[in-house]
Amino acid sequence: MRYSGLRRPRKRPGSLALLAAVLLAGAVSGPAALRAAEQGAPGGDPFAQLDEVFPAPTAARTASGAPGPGYWQQHVRYRIDVRLDDGLESIFGDARIIYENRSPHALSYLWFQLDHNRFRPHALSQLSRTDEPGPRLPFARLTEILTVEEAGLGISIERVEDEAGKELAHHIVDTMMRVDLPRPLQPGGEVTLKISWHLRIPPAKEVSNRSAMERFADGAPSYFVAMWYPRPAAYTDYGGWITKAFLYGEPALEFGDFDVRITVPETFTVAATGTLQNADDVLTEEERRRLDAARAADRPVFVVTPEEARARSARKAAGTKTWRFRAENVRDFAWAASPRFVWDAKGFRYPSGRFVLAQSFYPPEGMPIWDRFSTEAVIQALDVYARITGLEYPWPHATSVNAPIRSGMEYPMISANAPRPKDPPSYSRREKYALIGVVIHEVGHNWFPMIVNSDERHWLWMDEGLNSFVDAMAMRLWDRDAPPSGGLPERIAPVMTRAAQRPIMTQSDAYLDRGATGYRKVEAALTVLRDVVLGREVFDRAFREYVRRWAFRRPTPYDFFRTMEDASGVDLDWFWRGWFYGTDHVDVAVARVVRARIDTKDPQREMAWKRARDEALGPDLQEKLDAGLQRRVDRDPHLKDFYNEHDEYTVSPKDVADYEKLLEGLSEKEKALLATGKRLTFVTFENLGGLVSPLPLEIRYADGSTTRLTLPAEIWRRDPRKATKLFVTDKEITGIRFDPDRGTGDVDLWNNAWPREPEEITIELTKPEPQRNLMKEMGEAPPDAGHRRR
Asked: Is 54 helix (H, G, I), strand (E, B) or coil?
């Protein structure tokens, strides 16, 4: 799901706030959590290993971060028939679900997710939501409260039966449903359930949801249908059943095979997860011909034209059509339907020969940005994600749908994306890049979490953060003019310096700002890891290994952390501790620079150097003020003696003899070091932000030349607050700059250089706001002067 918005920077929390944040994270508990929090707090050890935080390796998950020989996950097979009733704005479904128990445990019951129950009046999601009192309340918020109370939303279960038609006991707990089995489902066994249900699709203008419907000016509807069927909850080796209620965090799901029949009014066009099985029944001959032509086209081809979409939208349906889709090894299924869909498509082929059909469905109101950019943005995601992850898109199509939801939302093979131009046929720069960005982001989710199947109920960042990291690269490779991501290290300061924040390793629903923590901070962290800590070649090799290991499996954060270390060969515990378990930020200051020279012990050279040094200082204030005054020895020269002819810089024969004696006791190498002529510069760095960081440096010399080098984060291992580095050079150092390319996420650029540079700000000239004249606004005349008191 794409997220937008940025909050103002605030002060960093203290150690108590950080301790509370880590304890709330849910990643660790008990003494281990306390120690981890204390070590991550200011003054703690940022290089302490995470052994007590990470869970112990098991047969399912190895210490290297790879799946072990005992790894397992469940599998589900679905046969679903669903009917859309446009008059009721509702769907009615019947599902035959075959649940395969591939775990080593016997299961007495199965848990299902009924996510639409989030919009029941007494749902945990509704009752736990808070609203602060103030002078303003958005129309949208009050409308949503009333809609939830009055609209009859939520999923209504009509019956749950076994394969023989015998009713099974089931219990609904908020957004979860437990189905009791007549006998325990043994390891290696499977059970068949039949479930019937119905639900109303929430109205987009009244309720913000992943499923939504809208009506256009002519009354034609558009539906995006997601989280719409009873979905088995994930059963895992690390947490058993994932039964967390649906508050906002997206689901944890099992992979499965789907055979879905969708019955809609005959004027509707349907887009869905999976491959269309009955094109001859639901598409015209001309549409099938255009679809074939699109496969080899160099630009998107209209399968359904805007004119045809408008005509269908204006026509009353004479009956229904059933569209049948099949999908294998996907973790979810979503679909969209409308008589007003324009449909365009274009083929994309990988160098390996693998073919994918990229396509978009949108109303004419989405033009001219949807027909120009959507399908091409789908292809951009297919191309770049495969290159970054090393894994080609595995399914036959990737589809973008203009849907009446907020921003965007992802499902296997299909995504819902909201942007439309407000004043067609023109469109703004923001509208253009909003569409391109959200399409790339949502299609990119096919890798995270549709392939690398992370548990979003616990760790939102594992799909949103990783996906934001890759989609930012895809946007940079789209267009130099594309707006920069808010998760770039040089733009992350407002996120890192907020007063109220929690670590990335916090349970998804407990984030204080999902976009800041789960998206942008993770993107910044991985960008720093790739560009500054590991280097792109090493990072990319490790990242691809993570994707390879966990494709079509369910990783935990610890599998990611361990794999990145295992495949890169670099100990990164300090990085995970600081960026993922802490709330400190990077703020490194070049605090002090000391030039030093080697004492050669040669009295001739040393006394000459001291004389030149002192002469270069020039006279002090007293000498200047006393200039021209006659001194006693000037009046009486006889008072001058040996010491008036030989000053403190005079070299005596004893000095020379002592030096020669010193040389006799030195080796040739030691003699060479005394005479080396190297310049020594001590540079002290202060860690003001608390988060240890590598030190990328640019060093400038007296001759105008520069060099670059990066000091590793381990420079802070003895003292995480201050570190001094000695530079031995042939040329005089005249300038030092930390983070010259703004790649570490440092929040204060003005203390990064020596010599120090002045800060620059912009001053806005203002005038006092005029006082309100209520009499003038009301059109009232002033009182007659004759009414004044005398």
From this structure: coil
The two three-digit tokens of residue 403, written as one number: 């849907």
d(CA 510, CA 29) in angstroms, rounded, equals 16
Q: How much of the chain is in helix, strand and coil states, percent to nearest 5?
A: 30, 25, 45
CA 565, 571, 577, 583 torsion-angle sign: negative
What integer pLDDT is reported at residue 785 of this predicted model?
Answer: 58
Task: Answer for the pair 406, 263: CB distance below 8 angstroms, yes or no.
Answer: no
12: confidence class by pLDDT, cuts 50, 70, 90: very low
DSSP 567: H
Alpha helices (H) along 529-571:
536-550, 557-568
Question: 329 phi and psi, to 5 degrees?
Answer: 55, 50
Residues 6+ apart with CB under 8 A from 611: 649
The rounded radius of gyration (Å) of the Cα atoms in the chain is 35
Neighbours of 171 (CB within 10 A): 10
Element (H, E) at 369: helix 369-369
Whether 8 shows a pLDDT value over 60: the answer reads: no
Residue 289 contacts residue 279 (beta carbons within 8 Å): no
Check whether the bond before 755 is cis (ω within 30° of 0): yes
The CA angle 27-31-36, to the nearest 5 degrees, is: 55
Measured CA distances, 112 to 101, 178, 651, 774 (Å): 15, 6, 93, 60
Q: What is the pLDDT of residue 677?
A: 84
* Letter string b/e over residues 620-641, b meaning 16 or more CB atoms within 10 A of that residue's CB: eeeeeeeeeeeeeeeeeeeeee
Mean of pLDDT over the chain: 92
Torsion, Cα 303 309 311 313, to 10 degrees, reads 140
Closest of 481, 568, 472, 478 to residue 520, by C-alpha? 472
pLDDT at residue 32 in the model:
41
Look up residue 250 and give its DSSP letter: P
Residue carrying the six token digits 């960093």: 12
Alpha-carbon distance of 651 to 643, in angstroms, equals 13
Beta bridge partners of 660: none
Angle at 157 between CA 250 and CA 258, to 5 degrees: 60
Mean pLDDT along residues 393-406? 96
Residues of the chain above pLDDT 90, percent: 80
> Which amino acid type is present at position 456?
E
Among candidates 24, 54, 56, 23, which has minimal Cα distance to 38? 23
DSSP-derived letter for residue 516 is I
pTM given for the model? 0.90
pLDDT at 22 (0 to 100): 39
* Cα–Cα distance for residue pair 560/28, rounded to 1 Å: 16
Phi first, then psi, for residue 709 (nearest 5°) are -155, 160
Torsion sign (Cα): 57, 63, 69, 72: positive
Within 10 A of 234 (CB to CB), how many other CB atoms are there? 25
Residue type, position 696, single letter: P
